Each structure stands twice: as structure tokens, then as C-alpha cells.
TrEMBL record:
Organism: Xiphophorus couchianus
Protein's UniProt name: FERM domain-containing protein
InterPro entries xrefs: Band_41_domain (IPR019749), FERM/acyl-CoA-bd_prot_sf (IPR014352), FERM_2 (IPR035963), FERM_central (IPR019748), FERM_domain (IPR000299), FERM_N (IPR018979), FRMD6-like (IPR047145), Ubiquitin-like_domsf (IPR029071)
Biological processes, Gene Ontology terms: positive regulation of hippo signaling
Annotated FERM domain residues: 9-309
One cellular component term from this protein's GO annotations in UniProt: cytoplasmic side of apical plasma membrane
Lineage: Eukaryota, Metazoa, Chordata, Craniata, Vertebrata
Amino acid sequence: VTMRTKQMRHVCVLLPNKQHLDCSVRMRARGQEVMKTVLRSLGVGDLQVFGLALLRDNEYLFLDLEQKLRKYFGKTWSRNSLKVSFSLVKFYLENGLLILSSKVQQLYYWELRQKVLQSQDHQQEALLFQLAASALQAEVGDLERGEGAEDEGGDEKKERVQYFLPEDYFPPWLINHRGRNFLLQHSPVLHGELRGTPRSRAILQFIKEASSLQDAALTFYRMKQVRLLPYFTSTLPLYSLFIFPLQGSRFEIAAVDSKLVYYTHSAFHSKHILKHLSDSHRFYVNSKDAACYIQQLEDMQIIFVLTLMAEVESEEAFVDDPAEVTWLAEFLYGASVDGPLQLPSSTWAGVCYNQHQRNYLHRVCVCRVILCIM
């Protein structure tokens, strides 16, 4: 037992929700063993959009799960000390419905929450307020009526207004720009407008809105153009690019009529960045059809709701005056104004059939959306 214990290594995996998982693996373990332990601990079959990452030279690099862990931890792997890894989003999505597990959805949400707090997108103040409202609905739930309102009365007023901390929902620059009191005054109004929205729906709404920020749903890598120049942050789009074979830390990207040459920390960094780009491209190609299908379902639901609202408004225009109903029946079908309202069976059959078709379409649209959410 003692010999076997010496051959085991302990890896701590930090999750986006600040939870940590302790994994015990063999000396010759590969990244897959840690991933399997994480899946087993979370009770899910696939993390889909997540990968295991390591902090190297103050930068996160995603592990190749086929490689041995010794390759990433170096000499420290031989020592029986705690090793730290991170479970981070590897592939970002615009629609959370593509994530099948609700647990993985929540982890994805928590990482985006941290990204939003670090956002420097100064042109999207309104969106940041809406994101804060969605986050409050997802975490706090429905705002109680009167909560967050400015009532008279000293301490009671202070307690009711501050049911959240601005630092937990807004980037520091926005707090400095608008002030805490402004955020505490106006955020509850937007939060209150989401009353009745389920927490799961609020999470999906947050995920979709966060993708509109310029610096939230992105992975950043630090590179330099000339070897002696300071580092700068660069985002690498995945379309219309040709990535050339690596030459040490040299990293070449060719677009249609131009070529960009960068240098990373090392050949190790370049290799893993290239693999991340390749994996991302493969992931987006494979999920393209599912993303289009979900978008079509959402468009169908929107069209259906708008059509239904238009029909309701049209029907209401005809029954504003109940007296007109009997007059219309007499005019069209010869029914007596003084007698009971009787319409031909064919008319009732048509009305019932249309209503049945409408209800059926409603059930189909809603069920498909719900099945996609689950």
C-alpha cells in the first residue's frame, strides 16, 4: 500500500464556480485520467466546451489529454506535492442550448460571469446593465416587490436598496464611472422586469447576451511581433486563415493578401496555441448544423408568438361590443336577434379545427424548445 501511495500524484482541479476537485492519478497518467475523474465527480458524461488548462509563464495553455502529465508539470511531477490545474472554457458558444448538461451550462455561465467583470468594452454600458440584471435573476431569483425601492426610513432604506454588491456584477471601471449609488438605484428596475423568468432561462439569456461583448467570449494569447518588443494582447480569428508549420516560437498566420508573423514564449506555447485553434475550428464545424437548427426553432417560436398576438388583437377588435355579435349573426345567418345565437355546424367545425391546429403548433414549438433546454 505504501509503495502504491508513493506512485500516486495528487492534482487539484479548480472549476469556474470556485469549487475544487482533488484527483489522485498514477505517476504515468495522462490528461484523460484527470478528465475522467472530473466527469465522475460532477456526474456528467461530457464537459463539451471545457478543457484542462495549466498556467505556464503567466498564461493559460490547454492540455493535450493524450499526453502524459509529466510533460506539463516537469520536475515537480516527481515530487509528491499538490499540482494545480484549471477547468476552463475551451470553445465559446453564442447559444447555451448547445450545451446539453445543465451542470455544464452553469459552469459555462460562471466563467462568463468572471469574464464580464473583467470586460473593458466601454461602448456597451447598456448591455452590461442588462447582463447584471440577468445574473441577478439567475442567482437571486424574482425581485420581491418593494425590494430595492427607495423607501423612507434610514437603516431600512439602506438595507432594502443594497440587496447586492455592485462589485459582484459590474466591471470596476463602470462602478467608478457611474458610481455605486447609480448602480444600486437603476439595476433593481431592470432586474424587476425579469420577474417570472426561470433561473435556467436567465442563465441562457446571460450566455447569449455576453457573446455580444467584444472581450468576453474570447481566449486571449500574448505574442510579440519582433523578438525584443513588449508583449501585446491579440485575438486570432478562425476564418480565412492559413497557419504555417511552426519554427520554434515563430508563429505565422496568412490571410488573403497579408501575412502576420508573431513570436510566442516558446515552441511549447506555439504548439499548444496551434492545437487550440485546430480543435476550435473542428468544434465549430461539427456544431454548425446544431446551432442552425436551434436558431430556426427560436425563430419559429418568435414568429408564432407574434402571429398569435396579432390574431388576439384582431379578435378583440370584433368583440369590443357584445351587442354586435348577435347583430352579425342575424345579418350573416338569418338568426333572430331575440332568439339564441346559433351558428351552422360547419362554422363551429372550422373554428374548432383552426383552434386545434393552433394549439398543436404551440405544443410542438414549446416542446422542441424545452427538449433542447433539458
